[in-house]
Amino acid sequence: MNKLLNPVGHFSERTLLFISLMGVVLNMVFCYLLGYRMTSVLNFVDGEFSFGEVLRATLMAYLLGIVVLYLLGLIYNKRTRWIDIVNTVVLSTLPGLLILLCANIPKFLEVQNRLLAQPAGISLTDSAIMFGFVLLTLPALAYTFILFFNGFKTATHMKKWYQIAIFFIVLLSLAAFSPYIL
User: Fold this and answer.
1) CB-based contacts of 77: which residues, under 8 Å, 6+ apart?
2) What is the percent of the chain where pLDDT is above 90?
3) What is the CB-side half-sphere exposure of residue 22 using CA atoms within 13 A?
């Protein structure tokens, strides 16, 4: 179980780097096929995008996340290795692909469009379907944060409560402000 919750601490960095590179490719393919673009390490935007736009946006989102978290890691521990931060950032975004897949289930899309068109007229069936969507995607989102936290903690040896608080502030700031930077 620990291997799933903290792969950075249990597998070799080369193995994780290979999985991370495959994850980046998988992310770009999924985004392109499903009509999304990655705008930060925690955010995807839907629309009509060329593969070049998806490629550029995905690589820039990863690069920004890696650079910011690596710099924070160096502040916490001068011996922070970039490969551990790369693996943490890329592996942590992979559960988001499950959310993208769930968001493209036709029934969810149909209910979402109905709710956007007529928010006051939500039926019990629509509520149940949206609740099912939440039940599918919330564990993936929680797992994303667990991977980020455990990977960064392993890479930097952060222990103090204020370091943890700053880490989450930086991570959420990345998610909030990256779309405006990229």
Assistant:
1) 156, 157, 158
2) 68
3) 6
